[in-house]
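cache lookup: miss for this entity combination. No prior model stored, computing from scratch. Input as submitted by user K.M.:
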Amino acid sequence: DAGVIQSPRHEVTEMGQEVTLRCKPISGHDYLFWYRQTMMRGLELLIYFNNNVPIDDSGMPEDRFSAKMPNASFSTLKIQPSEPRDSAVYFCASSRTGGTEAFFGQGTRLTVV
Amino acid sequence: QKEVEQNSGPLSVPEGAIASLNCTYSDRGSQSFFWYRQYSGKSPELIMFIYSNGDKEDGRFTAQLNKASQYVSLLIRDSQPSDSATYLCAVGGYYSGYSTLTFGKGTMLLVSP
């Protein structure tokens, strides 16, 4: 398996624009997680899905953030409108029920100017 | 609010020495404990996990858990320059549930040749 695949790797956008981050989890994994990492706050869980269903979105900072998982092999995290304080590295991770490891994608470095 | 505290470092050790990384957590109900390594610009990767009080060894790495003191540590023996990275401590609510993981901000380790 190629691991968790995220795209794009880097995104630079202007304030107010819509940003969509994409993730393909490892095949067979039934949990998918979206994290955000900044120097100030570290690695924070934004939302996670189990069997494509959002279970806990309490980490989503505000209504500008939304996430979907239309099928087992694809998820998106959307920010609309984007703001400079959204600049961070966004990681997607997946794991399976009973597994002891969450596998992380390579991340998307988002810069909002 | 569940908290996981780590000294940000950097922790500097010479090659061949033992590096000791520490972590404390606030939630007494925590059941699973993980150490992730993150190289600069890369994604976190799991090094070790531990569930029971005591020590767990894997090669040059030893994880130590003391639930009474709410303390987790990672020892790296015979440190190598390639061990230079940020080490993230993560704490979870139950054995197989990644959904409740809380990460610390990480400790940067620098191993000098």
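stored under new cache key. The mean pLDDT of chain A is 94.
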